[in-house]
Amino acid sequence: MPALSKMAPAGMTMARYGPLGLLQPKSQVLPLLRFSHAHLFRKRPAQLIVNRIKDVVHFYLVGIGLFPVFAFLTYNHIYHGTCELKDYPTEGPPPAYWQFERTPARQWWAKHFGLSDMEHHERNMAYHEKIGIIGRWRQLEQRVKHLEGQRWDYKAWHYQPVSSTWIDLGRYNALQLRDRYEAHGHYTY
Predict the structure, then answer these.
(1) DSSP label at 80?
(2) Core-most of 13, 18, 31, 138, by most CB within 10 Å?
C-alpha cells in the first residue's frame, strides 16, 4: 500500500501528460496535484488587538457605564417623577441649595457633587480677582518695557555687599585647586 501511494502522483502525471509529463518542471506539476484554485488563507493585518480594545470599550462603556445609568434614571423618572414646586417655608430651617433642583436625581447630584450658588459666586469672584491682578502686573511690565525703550535703558545688575569671610573662603579654594595636581589623588614623582 505505501508503494502505491508514493506512485500515485507520478501515475496522475503520466495519465494526464503521457511519458513526457515526468520531465516537466515541478512548479507546473505541483498545482495540478493539489487540485487547488487559490490561496485559502491570505495574509492580512492582525485584528486581535483591535477587536480586544473594541470589546473592552463596549463592555465598560455600555455594559457597566451607560446601561445601568440609563436604567437607574428611567426607574427614577417613572417611580418618582418630577419634583413639585412648593411655597418657600417661613418656619424652620431654610431649604438647602440642592432642594431647588427639578428631579430627585438632580437633587442627589447637586447635594453630593454640585456647587451651591454662594460657592459658585465666591469661586467666580476669586477667579476674576486673580485675572485682574495678573492684568495689572502685565500693564506694569509693559510700562517698564516702554520706558526702557524710550530712555534707552536696560536691566542691570545691582551691587550686593560681600563679606570678607567669603573672600577668604574663595582665596582658600583657589589655592587648593592650584596646588592639587590630580582631582582624584596625589601621585609622587
Answers:
(1) T
(2) 13
Query: For the purposes of burial, counting CB atoms within 10 Å of the CB of 108, is it exposed (0-12), middle (13-18) or buried (19 or more)?
Result: middle
Rounded distance, CA 174 to CA 171, Å?
Answer: 5
Cα distance between residue 11 and residue 126, in whole Å: 96
Helix (H) or strand (E) holding 139: helix 117-151
Check if the beta carbon of residue 106 is closer than 8 Å to that of residue 82: no
Q: What count of Cα atoms within 13 Å lies in the side-chain half-sphere of residue 56?
A: 6
* Cut 0.90: pTM above it: no
Q: How far apart are CA 173 and CA 166, in angstroms?
A: 11
On the 0-12 / 13-18 / 19+ scale of CB atoms within 10 A, 13 is buried
Taking alpha carbons only, the member of 135, 131, 96 closest to residue 116 is: 96
**Contact (CB, 8 A) for 108 and 87:** no
State the Cα–Cα distance between residues 11 and 7, nearest whole angstrom. 6
Q: Are 83 and 101 in contact (CB under 8 A)?
A: yes
Question: At residue 110, what is the residue type?
Answer: A
Residue 22: pLDDT above 80?
no
Per-residue pLDDT tens for 132-168? 999 999 999 999 889 888 888 776 766 677 888 888 9
pLDDT given at position 16: 59
